[in-house]
């Protein structure tokens, strides 16, 4: 196991700790755990590319760690009333659509290659910033304008990212279908 993959695993193992800290109202500690998790996300990608340590396992572990961290964080802070339910439903629905779309695309074409879109990376950063800001403001720091702005931006990038994957896979699936029909003719 290389260092980037180990950092992704650390992020996965931080999820139950983060949930517990938020539920027990240890928000400063939760903020620190989340911030460190965010740093490992940036660091594992940087190290994998810089040190040429990219692996097939890492291509799956990194997004899995991101999804587990973000979805569990969003659900937890929403249950505590710190984020609006509609936003968390939007974030969860986007991920279900992407995962479901990936499964369907793989079943139809057998050619799924996991390559995150730039808008998806932007969305992940926005989702992380929003969760960080929610934990920060819940700890007694109030800045509702920025919270509202981050909620709006995250909703926008979540929709844009989900729609981009649907369009991309729809086009690719249609192209695969055209190629199959052409081969039959």
In short:
Helix content is 84%, strand content 0%. The longest helix is centred in the C-terminal third of the chain and has 41 residues, at 144-184. It has six helices and no strands.
Care to describe what's here?
The chain is mostly helical and 185 residues long. The chain has a single domain (3-184), classed as Four Helix Bundle (Hemerythrin (Met), subunit A), CATH 1.20.120.1760. It is 84% helix and 0% strand. It contains six helices and no strands. It has helices spanning 3-23, 27-50, 56-79, 85-109, 118-138, 144-184. α2 runs antiparallel to α5 (118-138), α3 packs antiparallel against α4 and α5 (118-138) runs antiparallel to α6. The longest helix has 41 residues, at 144-184. The radius of gyration is 18 Å and the shape is globular. The mean pLDDT is 89.
Q: Provide the gyration radius in Å.
A: 18 Å
Structural class: mainly alpha
What is the H level of CATH, i.e. the homologous superfamily? CDP-alcohol phosphotransferase transmembrane (TM) domain
CATH structural architecture: Up-down Bundle
Helical coverage, percent range = over 70%
Give the averaged pLDDT, no decimals.
89
The level-1 CATH class: Mainly Alpha
Global geometry: globular
Number of strands: 0
How far apart the termini lie comes to 48 Å
Strand residue content: under 5%
Runs in which pLDDT lies below 50 for 5 or more consecutive residues are: none
- In the CATH scheme, what's the topology name? Four Helix Bundle (Hemerythrin (Met), subunit A)
Largest sheet: none
With helices defined by DSSP (H or I, 4 residues minimum), what is the helix count? Answer: 6
How many structurally independent domains? 1
